[in-house]
Amino acid sequence: MKLYTRTGDEGQTSVIGARVRKDDARVEAYGTIDELNSFVGQAASALARSGLPSLEEMANRLVLIQHELFDCGSDLSYAEPVAEKMKVAPEMTERLELWIDEYEAVTPPIARFILPGGSEPAALLHVCRTVSRRAERRVVTMAASQVCPEEVRKYLNRLSDFFFAAARAANAELGVPDVEYERGAHVFRRRT
C-alpha cells in the first residue's frame, strides 16, 4: 500500500458519503481532533516516564482517550451521520466526569484562574486542554451548517474539563504548586 494517493492534489478529500474541500468545516473539525490526539500522546509519554503509579494510570487513561478521539473523528467523517454507526456514547462522557471528580478531590482548592504549567506533564495537559477547546469550537462551527453527532460535542466539552483537572492532579502528585493568575478575581468555588 502506498501512503500517497494523489486524490487530494486538487484540494478535495473524501468523507463518508461525499467529496469535500479540504478546508470544509467537517474536515477542520476532525483534523483538529487529530491534532489534539497527537498532543494527548505526547502528554501520555511524559506521564508514563514519571515513575509514579498514579501518573502512569493517568497515562493509561490518556491512551483510552486517544482511542475515543479516533471515535470522534470517525463519527464526524460521515457527511450524513448514521445513528447505528456512531461510536461516541454518553457513557464515555460520564466516565470523564467521574475522573474529573476523582482528580478534583486530590487537588488543593483554587480561587483564581491558574497559569498553564507547573510540571512538564501538567504543562502538556494544559496544551491538550486548549487544543480540545479549539476542537470543540470547530465542531460547533460545523454543526451550525451541517449535521453533527451531538455526543461528539458533549464529549469534547467535558474532555477539556478533564485535562484541566488532570493537569492540576499531576502538579499535586509531583508536589508542584499551581500558579494563580495574580491579577484575577476570585472566580472558583469548590463544589460540595
UniProtKB/TrEMBL annotation:
Q: Which organism is it from?
A: Cohnella soli
Q: What is the lineage of its organism?
A: Bacteria, Bacillati, Bacillota, Bacilli, Bacillales
InterPro entries to which the protein is assigned, alphabetical: CblAdoTrfase-like (IPR016030), CblAdoTrfase-like_sf (IPR036451), PduO-typ (IPR029499)
Q: Which terms does the record give in the GO molecular function aspect?
A: corrinoid adenosyltransferase activity
Q: Identify the metabolic or biological route this protein is part of.
A: Cofactor biosynthesis; adenosylcobalamin biosynthesis; adenosylcobalamin from cob(II)yrinate a,c-diamide: step 2/7
Q: Give the UniProt keywords, A-Z.
A: ATP-binding, Cobalamin biosynthesis, Nucleotide-binding, Transferase
Q: What EC designation does it have?
A: 2.5.1.17
Name of the molecule in the record = Corrinoid adenosyltransferase
Q: Check the record and name the PANTHER family matching this protein.
A: CORRINOID ADENOSYLTRANSFERASE (PTHR12213), CORRINOID ADENOSYLTRANSFERASE MMAB (PTHR12213:SF0)
Where on the tree of life does the source sit, at the highest rank? Bacteria
* Coiled-coil segments on the chain, per record: none
One family name in Pfam for this protein: Cob_adeno_trans
Which Gene3D superfamilies does the UniProt record give?
Answer: Cobalamin adenosyltransferase-like
Q: Which family does it belong to?
A: Belongs to the Cob(I)alamin adenosyltransferase family.
User: Which residue range or ranges hold the Cobalamin adenosyltransferase-like domain?
Assistant: 3-169
Catalyzed reactions per annotation: 2 cob(II)alamin + reduced [electron-transfer flavoprotein] + 2 ATP = 2 adenosylcob(III)alamin + 2 triphosphate + oxidized [electron-transfer flavoprotein] + 3 H(+); 2 cob(II)yrinate a,c diamide + reduced [electron-transfer flavoprotein] + 2 ATP = 2 adenosylcob(III)yrinate a,c-diamide + 2 triphosphate + oxidized [electron-transfer flavoprotein] + 3 H(+)
